[in-house]
Amino acid sequence: MEATADEVDTAVRTAHAARGALADRTVRAALLHRAADLLDEAGEAVIEAADAETALGPGRLTGELARTTYQLRAFADLVREGAFLDVLIDHADPGLTPPRPDLRRYKIPLGPVAVYSASNFPLAFSVPGGDTASALAAGCPVVVKAHPDHPATSELCAALLHRAAREVGLPEGVVNLVHGFQAGIDLVRHPLISAAGFTGSVRGGRALYDAAASRPHPIPFHGELGSLNPVVITEAAAAERAEQIGAGLAGAMTLGVGQFCVKPGLVLAPGGEAGERLLKALTAAVSDTEAGVLLDHRMRDAFLDGVRTRAALPGVHAPVTPGAGGEHTVSAGFLAVPAAHLAAEGPHDLLLEECFGPVTVVAHYTDEAEIGAVLARLPGNLSATLQLGDAESDGTDDTGRGARLLAEVTPLAGRVVVNGWPTGVAVTPAQHHGGPYPATTSTSTSVGATAVERWLRPVAYQNTPPALLPPELREDNPLGLPRRVDGRAEGR
């Protein structure tokens, strides 16, 4: 089933040949809407196939399918509205110093895009997922490298996308599918691939990123790699709602058997009586969590090895021991350690690396200086979470702790959550699912409307005769696009 080099080449050239077919925004929007409809109609079969390959369960996969089709429709609406083209027109003004020429700028598609499916989201971050949807919205054909954990689901979803393309009058080559490890490498190196989107491990993503950068003509590589997603719980928050925070943390770290990219992996919690109450609530909630199945044996082995290695470090103990459940399952748990062990370089640095699965590290701090010392050592993250007390949240706390902690975590993450949990990434225009390296390899988001920007590049036309201008930039605005003309939104 693994694609040969010739088959990868054929897939990429097929995508390249389909570029012109995606030029019409109306047809692109129709493709995205029809793909969503067909996925919904085939929902039972899609969920059954995905569950058989991932054991994520019908409930989780039903929600993921709904998210996937919502994304497709949201990008269809984005395409119809047209603001993502970012049309800017500055008319000539010879009276300025220096004189200004006529300049008209908008964004055009990069070309064929490589998409690397994620293991933990067989729908929403795979063949019909957000990378594919946003690339098609931009006008870029796609070649998807299927994840080896769900090949049948990938084939089924690709067939539905092909059918959607046929039904709206597009060639099937606007979406292509390849399988295999070497195919993934061949894909990112192919000279006709213009950009790539990846969700997966730091090791795999970095290898592909380096390959993209070392090409004779380097290409953008938008990789989502690894994230610790730190949580800071203040003493005031623990005193006010220790039980609520403990239960919420347990739910966030065990959701999906801990296989979400925004799982809280490090928690800075206070010592003392309030901290003990929080730990007790966390222990009870995690202990009540049933064992679950990880996506494949490699991840299970890595999880068990990671937990053993971390638990063996000096000063680390496990109030609830994570580990093997039944023959194929793992049980949830957490490790506890004094925060002082993490404040300086040493063997405990391993606790500052992501461990994929249902485990988190609770680091007990003695004062606010320890919080700052640990935060200062963290790499980039997709999210950072603050659990604040009431006065710290509403600004009536005269210490300014809430604002100070917010300022400390903002450089660490692409999304800052206050008095909530990072799991559950809303698909909405204001969302940002990205962060400093190693969370992502670029400044872009892979969720939300602005994900389309990854697959576009701006081009400006200077003093171009009106008859030669693309329709998007013509004076009479025949496509009815939102535009800024001479610095103002048109119509205002």
UniProtKB/TrEMBL annotation:
<dbReference type="InterPro" id="IPR050740">
    <property type="entry name" value="Aldehyde_DH_Superfamily"/>
</dbReference>
<dbReference type="InterPro" id="IPR016163">
    <property type="entry name" value="Ald_DH_C"/>
</dbReference>
<dbReference type="InterPro" id="IPR044151">
    <property type="entry name" value="ALDH_KGSADH"/>
</dbReference>
<feature type="region of interest" description="Disordered">
    <location>
        <begin position="463"/>
        <end position="492"/>
    </location>
</feature>
<dbReference type="InterPro" id="IPR016161">
    <property type="entry name" value="Ald_DH/histidinol_DH"/>
</dbReference>
<protein>
    <recommendedName>
        <fullName>2,5-dioxovalerate dehydrogenase</fullName>
        <ecNumber>1.2.1.26</ecNumber>
    </recommendedName>
</protein>
<keyword id="KW-0560">Oxidoreductase</keyword>
<feature type="compositionally biased region" description="Basic and acidic residues">
    <location>
        <begin position="472"/>
        <end position="492"/>
    </location>
</feature>
<dbReference type="GO" id="GO:0047533">
    <property type="term" value="F:2,5-dioxovalerate dehydrogenase (NADP+) activity"/>
</dbReference>
<dbReference type="InterPro" id="IPR015590">
    <property type="entry name" value="Aldehyde_DH_dom"/>
</dbReference>
<feature type="domain" description="Aldehyde dehydrogenase">
    <location>
        <begin position="2"/>
        <end position="428"/>
    </location>
</feature>
<dbReference type="Pfam" id="PF00171">
    <property type="entry name" value="Aldedh"/>
</dbReference>
<dbReference type="InterPro" id="IPR016162">
    <property type="entry name" value="Ald_DH_N"/>
</dbReference>
